[in-house]
Structure to design on (509 residues):
Protein backbone atom coordinates (compact mmCIF):
# COMPACT_ATOMS: atom_id res chain seq x y z
CA UNK A 1 0.00 0.00 0.00
CA UNK A 2 1.34 3.45 -0.94
CA UNK A 3 2.16 5.93 1.86
CA UNK A 4 -0.46 8.58 2.56
CA UNK A 5 0.96 12.08 2.83
CA UNK A 6 -0.43 15.57 2.95
CA UNK A 7 0.35 17.40 -0.27
CA UNK A 8 1.15 21.11 -0.26
CA UNK A 9 -1.60 23.69 -0.58
CA UNK A 10 -2.58 25.72 -3.60
CA UNK A 11 -0.92 28.82 -2.11
CA UNK A 12 2.36 26.97 -1.57
CA UNK A 13 2.12 25.71 -5.14
CA UNK A 14 1.74 29.30 -6.37
CA UNK A 15 4.48 30.80 -4.20
CA UNK A 16 7.24 28.39 -5.24
CA UNK A 17 6.84 29.72 -8.78
CA UNK A 18 8.47 32.98 -7.57
CA UNK A 19 11.68 31.17 -6.61
CA UNK A 20 14.81 31.53 -8.72
CA UNK A 21 17.57 28.91 -8.78
CA UNK A 22 20.63 30.94 -7.85
CA UNK A 23 22.55 28.87 -5.25
CA UNK A 24 25.51 26.87 -6.51
CA UNK A 25 27.57 24.37 -4.54
CA UNK A 26 29.97 26.87 -2.97
CA UNK A 27 27.12 29.28 -2.25
CA UNK A 28 25.47 26.56 -0.14
CA UNK A 29 28.70 25.83 1.73
CA UNK A 30 29.26 29.52 2.50
CA UNK A 31 25.61 30.03 3.49
CA UNK A 32 25.80 27.17 5.99
CA UNK A 33 29.20 28.24 7.36
CA UNK A 34 28.02 31.85 7.70
CA UNK A 35 24.94 30.72 9.65
CA UNK A 36 26.09 27.74 11.69
CA UNK A 37 29.64 28.52 12.83
CA UNK A 38 28.76 30.55 15.93
CA UNK A 39 31.97 32.31 16.89
CA UNK A 40 30.10 34.45 19.42
CA UNK A 41 29.48 31.35 21.54
CA UNK A 42 33.17 30.42 21.77
CA UNK A 43 33.72 32.46 24.91
CA UNK A 44 30.64 31.08 26.65
CA UNK A 45 31.68 27.50 25.89
CA UNK A 46 35.32 28.03 26.86
CA UNK A 47 34.27 29.32 30.27
CA UNK A 48 33.91 25.70 31.42
CA UNK A 49 37.67 25.22 31.26
CA UNK A 50 39.93 22.74 29.50
CA UNK A 51 37.44 19.89 29.54
CA UNK A 52 35.38 21.95 27.07
CA UNK A 53 37.86 20.87 24.42
CA UNK A 54 37.44 17.23 25.42
CA UNK A 55 33.65 17.36 25.22
CA UNK A 56 33.77 19.30 21.95
CA UNK A 57 35.87 16.50 20.50
CA UNK A 58 33.57 13.80 21.90
CA UNK A 59 30.48 15.47 20.40
CA UNK A 60 32.24 16.02 17.09
CA UNK A 61 32.74 12.25 16.79
CA UNK A 62 29.62 10.89 18.47
CA UNK A 63 27.10 13.55 17.47
CA UNK A 64 28.28 15.70 14.56
CA UNK A 65 29.29 12.76 12.35
CA UNK A 66 26.08 10.70 12.69
CA UNK A 67 23.95 13.85 12.54
CA UNK A 68 25.71 14.98 9.37
CA UNK A 69 25.23 11.57 7.74
CA UNK A 70 21.50 11.50 8.56
CA UNK A 71 20.77 14.92 7.11
CA UNK A 72 23.10 14.59 4.12
CA UNK A 73 20.90 11.68 3.01
CA UNK A 74 17.63 13.37 3.92
CA UNK A 75 18.53 16.72 2.36
CA UNK A 76 19.60 15.16 -0.93
CA UNK A 77 16.46 13.01 -1.20
CA UNK A 78 13.75 15.47 -0.10
CA UNK A 79 14.40 18.74 -1.88
CA UNK A 80 11.23 20.79 -1.48
CA UNK A 81 11.53 24.46 -0.49
CA UNK A 82 11.05 24.70 3.26
CA UNK A 83 13.44 21.96 4.35
CA UNK A 84 12.68 20.87 7.90
CA UNK A 85 9.02 21.90 7.67
CA UNK A 86 8.47 19.75 4.57
CA UNK A 87 10.26 16.77 6.12
CA UNK A 88 8.28 16.93 9.37
CA UNK A 89 4.99 17.36 7.50
CA UNK A 90 5.70 14.32 5.36
CA UNK A 91 6.72 12.29 8.39
CA UNK A 92 4.20 13.34 11.03
CA UNK A 93 1.65 15.71 9.44
CA UNK A 94 1.07 19.47 9.46
CA UNK A 95 0.42 20.11 13.18
CA UNK A 96 3.72 18.58 14.25
CA UNK A 97 5.56 20.23 11.37
CA UNK A 98 4.08 23.59 12.39
CA UNK A 99 5.60 23.21 15.87
CA UNK A 100 9.03 22.19 14.54
CA UNK A 101 9.07 25.06 12.08
CA UNK A 102 8.01 27.65 14.66
CA UNK A 103 10.66 26.51 17.16
CA UNK A 104 13.36 26.58 14.49
CA UNK A 105 12.33 29.93 13.05
CA UNK A 106 11.81 31.87 16.27
CA UNK A 107 15.26 30.87 17.53
CA UNK A 108 16.83 33.17 14.97
CA UNK A 109 15.16 36.54 15.77
CA UNK A 110 15.45 35.78 19.52
CA UNK A 111 19.11 34.97 19.01
CA UNK A 112 19.79 37.99 16.78
CA UNK A 113 17.94 40.44 19.02
CA UNK A 114 18.88 39.03 22.40
CA UNK A 115 22.38 37.61 21.88
CA UNK A 116 24.03 38.71 18.64
CA UNK A 117 23.10 42.37 19.02
CA UNK A 118 24.43 42.34 22.59
CA UNK A 119 27.79 40.80 21.81
CA UNK A 120 28.26 42.99 18.70
CA UNK A 121 27.45 46.05 20.81
CA UNK A 122 29.89 44.97 23.52
CA UNK A 123 32.68 44.40 21.01
CA UNK A 124 32.01 47.70 19.22
CA UNK A 125 31.93 49.65 22.48
CA UNK A 126 35.12 48.02 23.77
CA UNK A 127 37.29 48.07 20.64
CA UNK A 128 35.85 50.61 18.19
CA UNK A 129 33.86 53.43 19.83
CA UNK A 130 32.95 53.43 23.52
CA UNK A 131 29.40 53.93 24.77
CA UNK A 132 27.70 53.02 28.02
CA UNK A 133 25.42 50.00 28.41
CA UNK A 134 21.82 51.20 28.31
CA UNK A 135 22.72 54.52 26.67
CA UNK A 136 21.00 55.99 23.61
CA UNK A 137 24.01 54.90 21.51
CA UNK A 138 23.74 51.35 22.87
CA UNK A 139 20.05 51.13 21.95
CA UNK A 140 20.75 52.69 18.55
CA UNK A 141 23.57 50.30 17.75
CA UNK A 142 21.53 47.22 18.63
CA UNK A 143 18.49 48.32 16.61
CA UNK A 144 20.58 49.22 13.56
CA UNK A 145 22.34 45.85 13.84
CA UNK A 146 19.00 43.99 13.89
CA UNK A 147 17.51 45.78 10.92
CA UNK A 148 20.65 45.46 8.81
CA UNK A 149 20.33 41.68 9.19
CA UNK A 150 16.69 41.94 8.10
CA UNK A 151 17.55 44.10 5.08
CA UNK A 152 20.22 41.60 4.02
CA UNK A 153 17.60 38.83 4.10
CA UNK A 154 15.09 40.86 2.05
CA UNK A 155 17.47 41.46 -0.85
CA UNK A 156 17.03 39.11 -3.82
CA UNK A 157 19.04 35.94 -3.18
CA UNK A 158 20.80 36.41 -6.50
CA UNK A 159 22.58 39.42 -4.96
CA UNK A 160 21.91 38.83 -1.26
CA UNK A 161 23.82 35.53 -1.25
CA UNK A 162 27.06 37.52 -1.39
CA UNK A 163 26.42 38.88 2.10
CA UNK A 164 26.71 35.46 3.83
CA UNK A 165 29.39 34.47 1.30
CA UNK A 166 31.56 37.41 2.32
CA UNK A 167 30.65 36.85 5.97
CA UNK A 168 31.79 33.22 5.82
CA UNK A 169 35.11 34.21 4.23
CA UNK A 170 35.67 36.97 6.81
CA UNK A 171 34.80 34.54 9.60
CA UNK A 172 37.37 32.00 8.41
CA UNK A 173 40.04 34.72 7.94
CA UNK A 174 39.26 36.11 11.43
CA UNK A 175 39.80 32.71 13.02
CA UNK A 176 42.95 31.99 10.98
CA UNK A 177 44.53 35.32 12.01
CA UNK A 178 43.60 34.64 15.64
CA UNK A 179 45.07 31.14 15.58
CA UNK A 180 48.31 32.19 13.87
CA UNK A 181 48.72 35.07 16.31
CA UNK A 182 48.05 32.73 19.22
CA UNK A 183 50.94 30.50 18.10
CA UNK A 184 53.25 33.55 17.97
CA UNK A 185 52.06 34.66 21.41
CA UNK A 186 52.58 31.21 22.91
CA UNK A 187 56.13 31.01 21.53
CA UNK A 188 57.00 34.38 23.00
CA UNK A 189 55.11 34.38 26.29
CA UNK A 190 54.24 30.81 27.15
CA UNK A 191 50.72 29.57 27.82
CA UNK A 192 48.24 29.39 30.67
CA UNK A 193 49.06 26.75 33.23
CA UNK A 194 47.12 23.77 31.83
CA UNK A 195 47.89 20.16 32.63
CA UNK A 196 46.61 16.92 31.12
CA UNK A 197 44.34 16.42 34.13
CA UNK A 198 42.53 19.68 33.30
CA UNK A 199 41.19 18.05 30.14
CA UNK A 200 39.66 15.12 32.04
CA UNK A 201 35.89 14.98 31.40
CA UNK A 202 33.46 15.31 34.31
CA UNK A 203 29.69 15.01 34.71
CA UNK A 204 29.50 18.68 35.67
CA UNK A 205 31.34 19.65 32.51
CA UNK A 206 29.12 17.43 30.37
CA UNK A 207 25.96 19.02 31.76
CA UNK A 208 27.40 22.50 31.41
CA UNK A 209 28.71 22.42 27.86
CA UNK A 210 26.38 19.97 26.08
CA UNK A 211 23.62 22.49 25.25
CA UNK A 212 26.16 25.06 24.03
CA UNK A 213 28.10 22.58 21.92
CA UNK A 214 24.93 21.09 20.41
CA UNK A 215 23.74 24.60 19.56
CA UNK A 216 27.08 25.14 17.83
CA UNK A 217 27.04 21.84 15.93
CA UNK A 218 23.39 21.89 14.81
CA UNK A 219 21.97 23.55 11.71
CA UNK A 220 23.82 22.02 8.77
CA UNK A 221 20.55 20.79 7.24
CA UNK A 222 19.15 24.34 7.39
CA UNK A 223 20.33 25.15 3.88
CA UNK A 224 17.52 22.93 2.60
CA UNK A 225 15.06 25.66 3.57
CA UNK A 226 16.18 27.25 0.29
CA UNK A 227 16.37 23.94 -1.62
CA UNK A 228 13.95 25.25 -4.24
CA UNK A 229 16.53 27.95 -5.03
CA UNK A 230 19.48 25.57 -5.37
CA UNK A 231 20.70 24.66 -8.84
CA UNK A 232 21.19 20.99 -7.96
CA UNK A 233 20.28 20.21 -4.34
CA UNK A 234 20.38 16.42 -4.78
CA UNK A 235 24.04 16.64 -5.77
CA UNK A 236 25.18 19.65 -3.76
CA UNK A 237 23.57 19.20 -0.33
CA UNK A 238 25.69 16.19 0.79
CA UNK A 239 28.83 17.95 -0.44
CA UNK A 240 27.88 21.17 1.38
CA UNK A 241 27.05 19.41 4.65
CA UNK A 242 30.30 17.43 4.61
CA UNK A 243 32.48 20.47 3.87
CA UNK A 244 30.71 22.87 6.23
CA UNK A 245 30.66 20.32 9.07
CA UNK A 246 34.40 19.81 8.70
CA UNK A 247 34.99 23.57 8.70
CA UNK A 248 32.76 23.94 11.77
CA UNK A 249 34.56 21.23 13.73
CA UNK A 250 37.89 22.95 13.09
CA UNK A 251 36.38 26.40 13.74
CA UNK A 252 35.29 25.28 17.22
CA UNK A 253 38.01 22.91 18.36
CA UNK A 254 41.02 25.05 17.41
CA UNK A 255 39.78 28.43 18.74
CA UNK A 256 38.49 26.83 21.96
CA UNK A 257 41.94 25.35 22.53
CA UNK A 258 43.55 28.71 21.69
CA UNK A 259 41.31 30.61 24.13
CA UNK A 260 42.07 28.10 26.87
CA UNK A 261 45.84 28.37 26.51
CA UNK A 262 45.75 32.18 26.40
CA UNK A 263 43.24 33.06 29.13
CA UNK A 264 42.84 31.48 32.58
CA UNK A 265 39.36 29.97 32.95
CA UNK A 266 38.34 32.51 35.60
CA UNK A 267 39.02 35.37 33.14
CA UNK A 268 36.87 34.02 30.31
CA UNK A 269 33.46 35.69 30.00
CA UNK A 270 30.63 34.56 27.78
CA UNK A 271 30.05 37.84 26.01
CA UNK A 272 33.67 38.82 25.46
CA UNK A 273 35.73 35.64 25.71
CA UNK A 274 36.88 35.45 22.10
CA UNK A 275 37.65 39.15 21.70
CA UNK A 276 39.39 39.19 25.11
CA UNK A 277 41.64 36.40 23.86
CA UNK A 278 42.23 38.32 20.61
CA UNK A 279 43.15 41.41 22.63
CA UNK A 280 45.64 39.37 24.67
CA UNK A 281 47.46 37.72 21.76
CA UNK A 282 47.51 40.90 19.63
CA UNK A 283 50.00 42.32 22.14
CA UNK A 284 52.67 40.65 19.99
CA UNK A 285 52.10 43.38 17.37
CA UNK A 286 53.35 46.11 19.69
CA UNK A 287 52.30 49.66 18.80
CA UNK A 288 50.15 48.40 15.92
CA UNK A 289 47.96 46.38 18.30
CA UNK A 290 45.36 49.12 19.11
CA UNK A 291 44.66 49.85 15.44
CA UNK A 292 44.51 46.14 14.64
CA UNK A 293 42.08 45.58 17.50
CA UNK A 294 39.84 48.36 16.20
CA UNK A 295 39.81 46.83 12.72
CA UNK A 296 39.19 43.39 14.23
CA UNK A 297 36.28 44.77 16.28
CA UNK A 298 34.67 46.12 13.10
CA UNK A 299 35.22 42.83 11.28
CA UNK A 300 33.81 40.91 14.25
CA UNK A 301 30.61 43.00 14.21
CA UNK A 302 30.26 42.54 10.43
CA UNK A 303 30.72 38.78 10.79
CA UNK A 304 27.99 38.65 13.43
CA UNK A 305 25.64 40.70 11.23
CA UNK A 306 26.19 38.41 8.24
CA UNK A 307 25.74 35.41 10.52
CA UNK A 308 22.36 36.72 11.63
CA UNK A 309 21.34 37.54 8.06
CA UNK A 310 22.32 34.05 6.87
CA UNK A 311 20.05 32.49 9.49
CA UNK A 312 17.20 34.82 8.56
CA UNK A 313 17.64 33.97 4.88
CA UNK A 314 17.31 30.31 5.78
CA UNK A 315 14.77 30.19 8.59
CA UNK A 316 12.44 32.86 7.21
CA UNK A 317 12.02 30.84 4.03
CA UNK A 318 11.06 27.78 6.04
CA UNK A 319 8.47 29.70 8.07
CA UNK A 320 7.10 31.38 4.95
CA UNK A 321 6.58 27.96 3.36
CA UNK A 322 4.87 26.79 6.54
CA UNK A 323 2.52 29.78 6.29
CA UNK A 324 1.88 29.21 2.59
CA UNK A 325 1.13 25.57 3.40
CA UNK A 326 -1.54 26.46 5.98
CA UNK A 327 0.47 25.98 9.19
CA UNK A 328 0.98 29.58 10.33
CA UNK A 329 -1.88 32.09 10.22
CA UNK A 330 -4.01 32.65 7.15
CA UNK A 331 -1.34 32.63 4.52
CA UNK A 332 -0.48 36.32 5.07
CA UNK A 333 3.11 35.44 5.95
CA UNK A 334 3.35 32.87 3.17
CA UNK A 335 4.02 35.35 0.39
CA UNK A 336 7.25 35.50 -1.60
CA UNK A 337 7.88 38.83 -3.34
CA UNK A 338 7.27 38.32 -7.09
CA UNK A 339 10.42 40.22 -8.14
CA UNK A 340 12.77 39.60 -5.22
CA UNK A 341 11.73 35.99 -4.58
CA UNK A 342 12.13 36.58 -0.83
CA UNK A 343 9.58 36.18 2.01
CA UNK A 344 9.49 39.89 2.84
CA UNK A 345 6.57 39.64 5.30
CA UNK A 346 8.31 36.99 7.42
CA UNK A 347 11.57 38.94 7.15
CA UNK A 348 9.83 41.97 8.65
CA UNK A 349 8.16 39.80 11.30
CA UNK A 350 11.59 38.47 12.29
CA UNK A 351 12.83 42.02 12.62
CA UNK A 352 9.92 42.94 14.88
CA UNK A 353 10.40 39.84 17.07
CA UNK A 354 14.15 40.51 17.32
CA UNK A 355 13.50 44.15 18.23
CA UNK A 356 10.95 43.27 20.92
CA UNK A 357 13.20 40.63 22.44
CA UNK A 358 16.16 43.03 22.41
CA UNK A 359 14.16 45.73 24.19
CA UNK A 360 12.82 43.26 26.76
CA UNK A 361 16.30 41.83 27.38
CA UNK A 362 17.64 45.36 27.92
CA UNK A 363 15.27 45.72 30.87
CA UNK A 364 16.48 42.56 32.64
CA UNK A 365 18.37 43.37 35.80
CA UNK A 366 21.98 42.27 35.59
CA UNK A 367 25.11 42.77 33.56
CA UNK A 368 25.24 42.52 29.79
CA UNK A 369 27.12 39.23 30.18
CA UNK A 370 24.28 37.80 32.29
CA UNK A 371 21.66 38.94 29.78
CA UNK A 372 23.68 37.41 26.96
CA UNK A 373 23.90 34.09 28.79
CA UNK A 374 20.19 33.91 29.60
CA UNK A 375 19.00 34.86 26.12
CA UNK A 376 21.52 32.52 24.52
CA UNK A 377 20.07 29.75 26.70
CA UNK A 378 16.54 30.54 25.49
CA UNK A 379 17.74 30.39 21.88
CA UNK A 380 19.38 27.05 22.64
CA UNK A 381 16.16 25.76 24.23
CA UNK A 382 13.92 26.53 21.27
CA UNK A 383 16.49 25.30 18.76
CA UNK A 384 17.23 22.00 20.51
CA UNK A 385 13.53 21.30 21.10
CA UNK A 386 12.90 21.56 17.36
CA UNK A 387 15.31 18.65 16.84
CA UNK A 388 13.29 16.48 19.21
CA UNK A 389 10.90 16.43 16.22
CA UNK A 390 13.28 16.84 13.27
CA UNK A 391 15.60 13.90 14.00
CA UNK A 392 12.75 11.34 14.35
CA UNK A 393 11.22 12.81 11.18
CA UNK A 394 14.42 12.15 9.21
CA UNK A 395 14.50 8.56 10.49
CA UNK A 396 10.86 8.01 9.57
CA UNK A 397 11.39 9.36 6.05
CA UNK A 398 14.05 6.68 5.50
CA UNK A 399 11.57 3.89 6.27
CA UNK A 400 8.32 5.49 5.10
CA UNK A 401 9.57 6.43 1.63
CA UNK A 402 12.06 3.70 0.69
CA UNK A 403 11.48 4.25 -3.04
CA UNK A 404 12.46 7.93 -3.10
CA UNK A 405 15.82 8.16 -4.94
CA UNK A 406 18.70 8.90 -2.58
CA UNK A 407 21.73 10.38 -4.40
CA UNK A 408 23.62 9.93 -1.14
CA UNK A 409 22.74 7.01 1.10
CA UNK A 410 24.18 6.32 4.55
CA UNK A 411 25.92 2.95 4.19
CA UNK A 412 23.80 1.20 6.81
CA UNK A 413 20.51 -0.63 6.75
CA UNK A 414 17.38 0.84 8.25
CA UNK A 415 18.34 -0.53 11.68
CA UNK A 416 21.71 1.21 11.52
CA UNK A 417 20.05 4.45 10.40
CA UNK A 418 17.67 4.23 13.37
CA UNK A 419 20.62 3.67 15.71
CA UNK A 420 22.32 6.82 14.39
CA UNK A 421 19.07 8.71 14.90
CA UNK A 422 18.67 7.34 18.44
CA UNK A 423 22.22 8.44 19.34
CA UNK A 424 21.60 11.97 18.04
CA UNK A 425 18.18 12.12 19.72
CA UNK A 426 19.68 11.12 23.08
CA UNK A 427 22.19 13.97 22.90
CA UNK A 428 19.49 16.47 21.91
CA UNK A 429 17.14 15.29 24.68
CA UNK A 430 19.92 15.74 27.26
CA UNK A 431 20.80 19.17 25.92
CA UNK A 432 17.15 20.29 25.83
CA UNK A 433 16.53 19.36 29.47
CA UNK A 434 19.70 21.05 30.68
CA UNK A 435 18.92 24.18 28.65
CA UNK A 436 15.38 24.53 29.99
CA UNK A 437 16.04 23.36 33.57
CA UNK A 438 19.72 24.05 34.32
CA UNK A 439 21.03 22.72 37.60
CA UNK A 440 18.42 19.98 38.07
CA UNK A 441 20.60 17.13 36.79
CA UNK A 442 23.64 18.54 38.57
CA UNK A 443 21.81 18.31 41.89
CA UNK A 444 20.54 14.86 40.97
CA UNK A 445 24.17 13.74 40.67
CA UNK A 446 25.05 15.43 43.98
CA UNK A 447 26.96 18.31 42.40
CA UNK A 448 26.98 21.84 43.81
CA UNK A 449 25.19 24.34 41.57
CA UNK A 450 25.00 28.02 42.47
CA UNK A 451 22.38 29.37 40.05
CA UNK A 452 23.00 33.08 40.59
CA UNK A 453 26.76 32.66 40.34
CA UNK A 454 26.37 30.64 37.13
CA UNK A 455 23.79 32.80 35.35
CA UNK A 456 23.96 36.20 37.03
CA UNK A 457 20.18 36.15 37.62
CA UNK A 458 17.92 34.27 40.00
CA UNK A 459 16.48 30.89 39.04
CA UNK A 460 12.98 32.40 39.16
CA UNK A 461 13.95 35.13 36.66
CA UNK A 462 15.58 32.56 34.40
CA UNK A 463 12.64 30.13 34.39
CA UNK A 464 10.04 32.88 33.97
CA UNK A 465 11.97 34.20 30.96
CA UNK A 466 12.53 30.73 29.46
CA UNK A 467 9.20 29.01 30.19
CA UNK A 468 7.35 32.24 29.43
CA UNK A 469 8.95 32.34 25.98
CA UNK A 470 7.98 28.70 25.33
CA UNK A 471 4.40 29.33 26.54
CA UNK A 472 4.01 32.34 24.26
CA UNK A 473 5.31 30.26 21.37
CA UNK A 474 2.81 27.51 22.13
CA UNK A 475 -0.08 29.96 22.09
CA UNK A 476 1.24 31.65 18.95
CA UNK A 477 1.59 28.31 17.17
CA UNK A 478 -1.90 27.11 18.14
CA UNK A 479 -3.60 30.35 17.11
CA UNK A 480 -1.57 30.50 13.90
CA UNK A 481 -2.52 26.95 12.94
CA UNK A 482 -6.23 27.49 13.61
CA UNK A 483 -6.25 30.73 11.62
CA UNK A 484 -4.71 28.95 8.61
CA UNK A 485 -7.60 26.51 8.08
CA UNK A 486 -8.87 28.26 4.88
CA UNK A 487 -5.39 27.95 3.35
CA UNK A 488 -5.29 24.22 4.07
CA UNK A 489 -8.69 23.76 2.48
CA UNK A 490 -7.50 25.00 -0.92
CA UNK A 491 -5.80 22.16 -2.76
CA UNK A 492 -3.59 22.50 -5.85
CA UNK A 493 -5.21 21.83 -9.19
CA UNK A 494 -4.96 18.13 -9.97
CA UNK A 495 -4.02 17.07 -6.41
CA UNK A 496 -5.54 13.69 -5.43
CA UNK A 497 -8.30 13.99 -2.83
CA UNK A 498 -6.87 11.21 -0.66
CA UNK A 499 -3.41 12.78 -0.55
CA UNK A 500 -1.72 9.64 -1.88
CA UNK A 501 1.69 10.40 -3.26
CA UNK A 502 4.65 8.10 -3.62
CA UNK A 503 8.09 7.79 -5.04
CA UNK A 504 10.09 10.65 -6.51
CA UNK A 505 7.06 12.94 -6.72
CA UNK A 506 6.66 12.80 -2.95
CA UNK A 507 10.12 14.24 -2.46
CA UNK A 508 9.11 17.48 -4.11
CA UNK A 509 5.93 18.19 -2.11
Amino acid sequence: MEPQVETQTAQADREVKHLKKTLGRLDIVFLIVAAVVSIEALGQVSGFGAETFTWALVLAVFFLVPYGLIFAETGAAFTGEGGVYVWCRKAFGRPVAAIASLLTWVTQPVWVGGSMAFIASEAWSTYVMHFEHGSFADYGFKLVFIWLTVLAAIISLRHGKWIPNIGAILKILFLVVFLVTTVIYAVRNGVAGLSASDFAPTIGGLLGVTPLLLFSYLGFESGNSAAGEMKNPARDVPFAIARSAGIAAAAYLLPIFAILIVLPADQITGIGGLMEAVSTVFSVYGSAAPAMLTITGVVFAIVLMTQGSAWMIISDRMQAMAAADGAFFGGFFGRFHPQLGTPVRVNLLSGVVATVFCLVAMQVTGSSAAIFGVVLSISISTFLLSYVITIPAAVRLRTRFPDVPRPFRVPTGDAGFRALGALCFAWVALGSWVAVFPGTLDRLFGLDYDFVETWGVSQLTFEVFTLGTLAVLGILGAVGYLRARPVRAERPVGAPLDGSVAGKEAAQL
Notes: The chain has 21 helices and no strands. Residues 289-324 form the longest helix (36 residues). The chain has one domain: 19-487. The two ends are 19 Å apart (CA to CA).
